[in-house]
């Protein structure tokens, strides 16, 4: 018998051992495996529940687990029926299974039971056929989008359209039809963040106002409808600023607190640009304004609304068609004004963007940019991605600081202090490898990612796994290789699984990634997804994987593995286990006026949090208010760090009743809505301030003014296009800015001296201030903010434009000089280019005279092509070069790396519309040739009448807006006064014919030639009527001529019968006409006869007589019909300006100092006088915003007693009337506008072969047009061709009877025997050619001689054409169907966060063939969309800026004249 003590000891050991074993077992996570046949199309938890649904779309079934994936049962739904699974986003009891038919299923108990319901239609093939109401009281309000098909009227196939139905009891009641022909409907209350006071029943629908007979709709019929009673009686079409009815609506979405509508601008000549309208209250909609107006245009399928916060909307815009590199823009608090946040963002072909905000931490976001964007876009190089992080809501972005050691504690290979070559880069949204968010979860402050350390991101398989526990401030490498990852129990448990190879275990950490433990799965899998409950508060996880073949048991190839980590910890955390964790970095602690902190478990606390389904609570501590917490108040404009008034401030009626005293008004600032900062402890910038009553808005009917005196003469002034901001440069080198049309002024950078400034020729919101050192300042937001950048050289003083601009990008060319600081040495001009708006520069060439981008707005050539006038011998002082050093013309693609010499010797080159024109010097014969190109590479020599070749004449290129080049060729001999012949080319600029002789020009090469703005083909010239006597007398007698057929014929201006006093003119014979002073006499060359905002209205200074009188002997005239008839509106010569689309005209005496202006609100019938000063001012120019849409003007001039100091007088006519003009395009004749045609005063009703009508304000209506969008011109019809539609062919001129005859001694052009694509015949040439801008049809055709049949396939029978046509059409239908679906053209869609791309179509091959007519329309639509997105060579939008002349003199050493600020 064993001793008692041994027995006791043994028993004790067994007890201890069993206790240890049971403890170890208790510490191990629980693992349960369930096999499935297919991966799920959807796998989701009901919010705040343990119930998870698994949708196997291949088998058409749904599986349910009530215990977070441990046990599964199949839903009680017929096998094969489940086509789509949708959860109710606002009620966690409900989910819906939609089938392909009309019988569907619903659960109201989280999948325990399912009941069927019937709908009249099968569900539509859209991403979200159900739309829900966000108010819990109206949980049963659901919209259902279905597809209704009817047999085609052609007898084959079906025509289908979508309808939307509604239920108020979650399909327990009988569904009712809401609206037919819908694209998308949703409740205004469909987001918890979009809070407003609109009725609960308000519904928005994007739908068509026409019915379809072929399954398709025109975009023009797409509207945004709204109703407050489910469209039973109340149905309205929402107007978004486009007249009475908004057309072209593509989509609507609710994002965060914003509702956004996307629509396409359908106005003629538009390039498919889209517009976004935004509201935060469901009542007031505003157009979203993007900077870089020409380079950031929204195009369909080229922008993405990315994840946004409740205080700003974020949009990524694709700047170049076919690219996958974008620019991220972030809005202000109401979502209407956007600023550039991050350039070169990475996107994929589906529109998804590498951008994500960290969950629960305000202001922190991660994005990827393309390091080599230029090479990736231009040369197709593989993208090199870099990651950026923001801690201040996108205001600034920085590189991610990498850890100093790897997961084993070894130092990393690069130096983290070298941010360029050593940063952390992470894979993001475009390379998703798991469900849900990429980096973060609701666990506060925790983020994980797969990435690499270096200068750019490595491929996924070469990356490692990183963790941040402080919301991205610091990171550490926690595992080698790429892993899927998930957070649980508010971050106290982290699980990772290798994502590069098959695994049989997962790893987890309960101490914030310090140590990791392994859990065996029992099988080998290839991980596909890892998830947990949405709020990351559970200790249970679901791992989805593909089972290794050796472990498959026949019950499925895929596994859902339930992982329960609750057994690993047995103590629940108490208060001492938690700490207060502050979000964001130290330099950006305060966002929206407060700090943010969470209660979080301490890293070393061995406990579980355990508050399941209790979301972490963010706490706020208000910060003292700073400048960042305020934005400009209404009626104020940002100007640097100030908010200046847009004009006089509206005040309550009880103040300033006598116009004297003071009032309490806005400081210009307001606290950003939603901001919670403490104004007591910080700044209170929104406190009202005391103001003088003179700053208050006047009563209706009053005019006010403000006077500002500059300290020197004005050398340069210009408005930003589409803006109220104007810049002024003075003689002393200072630059001044006014953001409110001259109401107040501020000096920019008082310590700098500026040589000049440039406004970007193609991007309205950009400008550049050029200093006299190696520095410039630029703005990308109309001068609200200016930023300094270095330049590669000092700005040149050779007379070469310092900056050249690219029409579609950030590309710049800078021409400076080197070696010019002293009196001797090699002084020469140098050119550099930048692809990032001046941040980095690269050398182009030295010893250049002019370098420019070959690409123009309509000259569609390689974007990287540069053209330079470059001296052959690159040595010596360039200032001393004469004819001995040839000036070559060199073009270089790939940013001048691949150079090619185009011409051995040139005088200059110029771009006009679609033409590149070069003046080539022929050294052998000492003459000039004109070379014309449409592609920047291939040139054709211009052919001229024998007596008018440019070899021996100076010439000036004038204009090319109507598919032809106008050129002035000087024919007078020096030293006579100058005049010459205007020649007009054919469509490609190669053959020139005489348009009009003896046209006046001055000594600088500028010509009295001006086209009417907005009315192509109408132009005015001044001709020298005494060409025989002028060389002897040295005095030119001038007469005026006008053309209404683009130079085809010219005639005098018809004089008015009486003057402004009602008295007949002394000159009454047939020799009498109206003659007006032209371009060569203007003080400000930008002043024009006409206005872009009111078609047909012209003002000029002139006289009635046989010739033009002196300027001071002239009077002021006006025409309302594009120059057909005229009236004298005032005696004496006046300067004039058009305002508010012609609703107000202002004139000021131009013969001497004055103290008043005159204005008219009825286009000159009546004039009123306003005195702006007690002391007379010599006014030199009147300016207003470039589009003439404002009622505010600036007079620039000087007091006679101080001519060396300029004065600016701001005139404000906005309070003359507050009555807004009414424009109703749908019901013309019952509003304040008339439909007017420039042909009204003529016998023929057509101009350029068409009758065109324009909307303009009625003359007697005293109302404000404002900035409402103008109605597009309306082409009523194309007219039969008449004589006015033709001009003389090459080598022909008009005789005294107006007929075209061959010039003696010349030969006509040979016949052109080529056939147009749709023509059966070609015609022999005659003495006439059709005006290329005319659209006339049939009628008189003097341009056609005898006809000849075109060669080709004719006379084939029915079966031949059936074979030729049917099969290409069938193929095109299939291609069109694929492209139509793939590109999203079938239904406009705003790309939103979480979109997973288009659903695959359910149609089979026969469905496609049966729908050929429908898809032919689809193909045509696609083709047109593609064409409209590429500016065709001869499609033109009106250019409302004053066009710069190019003068090419005979002297090869003289310069080609250019306006410096114009292209």
Automatic annotation (TrEMBL):
Transmembrane stretches, start-end: 1358-1380
Keywords: Glycoprotein, Golgi apparatus, Membrane, Receptor, Repeat, Signal, Transmembrane, Transmembrane helix
Keyword Nucleus: no
Signal sequence bounds: 1-26
Domain VPS10: 51-698, 724-1355
UniProt-annotated location(s): Golgi apparatus, trans-Golgi network membrane; Prevacuolar compartment membrane
InterPro entries membership: Sortilin_C, Sortilin_N, VPS10, VPS10-sortilin, WD40/YVTN_repeat-like_dom_sf
GO cellular component: cytosol; Golgi apparatus; membrane
Example GO biological process: Golgi to endosome transport
Entry keyword Glycoprotein: yes
Function statement: Functions as a sorting receptor in the Golgi compartment required for the intracellular sorting and delivery of soluble vacuolar proteins, like carboxypeptidase Y (CPY) and proteinase A. Executes multiple rounds of sorting by cycling between the late Golgi and a prevacuolar endosome-like compartment.
Protein name: Vacuolar protein sorting/targeting protein 10
Organism of derivation: Rickenella mellea
